[in-house]
Amino acid sequence: MTSTEEAAVPAAGEREPRRSRWPAVTAVALGTFLLVTAEQLPIGLLTSVGSALSVSEGTAGLMVTVPSLVAAVSAPLVPVLVGGLDRRLLLLGLMGLMTLANVASALAPNFAVLVASRVLVGVAIGGFWAIASGLAVRLVSPDDVPRATAIVFGGVGAANVFGVPIGTLVGEFAGWRVAFVTLSALALVVLLALLAVLPPLAATRPVRPRLLAEQFRNPGVRSGILATLLLVTGHFSAYTFVSPVLQELSGIDERLVGPLLFGFGLAGMVGNFVAGAALARAPHRTVLVIAVALAAAMPLHVLLGRGPVGGVVLLVAWGLAFGGVSVGLQTWMIRTAPRAVEAASALWVAVFNLSIGLGALAGGLVVDALSLGGVLWLGGACALAAAFAVRGARGAEGLR
Known about the structure:
By secondary structure, the chain is mainly alpha-helical. It has 19 helices and no strands. The termini are close together.
């Protein structure tokens, strides 16, 4: 970005902020932390929920699948439906919905009601993330946008490192219903924080179906969407099976898998902020490096990860690289669609969530048909294809 106009297009009558609103950025980051925690928390509660509500663990997995798919649909749909509604009011409403949805989950008398409550969680995730992911341009000065975006997406890494494991522990010691109640209480805290520090955010340009469709005529947006599809699908096709990969390929004791995944999350947080700093100077090169690093880290497990040391080193490298994906590709969207950040971000969030499910599905098919090594090669191949897509976008408007 070379000017204020390229960073964002303020709404009529809205002045560019003279100072960056870092408390608001922090509150939004807390929101992303809570959203990802809410989406993934049931992973650690499948057995207890299945036992309590008399469903199989496979059926209980719908608690994760359903909100992911709903989020993919609601990401572009919510901005369209609300039109010119003040984005502050929208974010507050969605966080209120998250609060109530988790209360409903905690009180669910049967699995059907629980899944219905998870539909509401998916609406809140998709709508909130679609708005929040491009909000940095509204809250900070142009020079601070990459750092603010990294902070917002730091909430994603923090959820993987702290939110899901802690929520799972709460479920183990106090019961799965208490875990959902705790999540609801935290959502209420985030709601109050947003209410206190988020400024009015008039819609800069209401999202219409036509505006969403127009984004596909933007070469930079098309490349970013394709790179997102390939990188996220590739990552989750392999990462879904990271536990057996560590145990069976690297010979790591099952008791060490949990701590190692904690380390993966920490590495991801580091990668998020390193990428955020690099994006301010060279956005295109940074995303290309991330894609190439992932293309190498995953398949190298098959070749160099057949021992504990190699497995751990490559796991950390994988975490560092993937930690930069969210902030890197969201910054890509901001740079290539400066006058339609919200529309481009909504499409990006939709593709990101769809790719999570697609990756897990593809990985499962490959594991069943081939081997664990197959998903690592698949992940690497997807990342390599993403690298070519990114390289082909060199010189795109906003990425120079």
